[in-house]
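Recall the central idea of this unit: under ordinary conditions, the amino acid sequence of a chain determines the structure it adopts. In this exercise we apply that idea directly, starting from the sequence alone.
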Amino acid sequence: MKKEAIIICDFQNEIIHPAGKFKAKGYATFVEQNNVLSNTNLALEKARENDMTIIFVRVGFSTDYKEQPKNSLLFSKADQLQALKLGTWATQIHEELKVKEDDFIVTKHRVSPYYATKLDLILRNKRITDVYLCGCATDMVVSSAVRESHDRDLNIFVLGDCCAAASIDDHQNALTTIKKFATVGDVLELL
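Accordingly, the structure predicted from this sequence is:
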């Protein structure tokens, strides 16, 4: 029997809000110009109508940055920038997304939403067979989630209009690669 979950990755203030520390990367502009948050809210609405498990994933580090990978090109300066600090506005899910009390929130310390998190346990306990993925960035967390979901024998659907990247080229290139592992479409096509 098919059991579904929607996983929304890294749609947190520091990354996609215009006041976030990563605004210069282009994510906030992409999100705004492509209606990513309104599309994601539509996906959430449809997921709730279909009684899907809803999982939000965020990236962050403790105030002492003990989980920070110091040799990572992506995360090595987080402590110097005081970025992605857990328990602050930076790691809260963007306020435009409708998070409910019974939704799961998974905290990660790397790109992958699976690495050293409770995500796999949630999916197994809920006996999930099909995952629908959204997130920022398409070429990072979404791509990683697709590959790892594939290797866990899940059916994977990527909601392309609920994903964001630094540029349209990064987004489209990632979706092209993702199509080797997952069905890619828009909210109205897939949900």
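The chain has eight helices and six strands.
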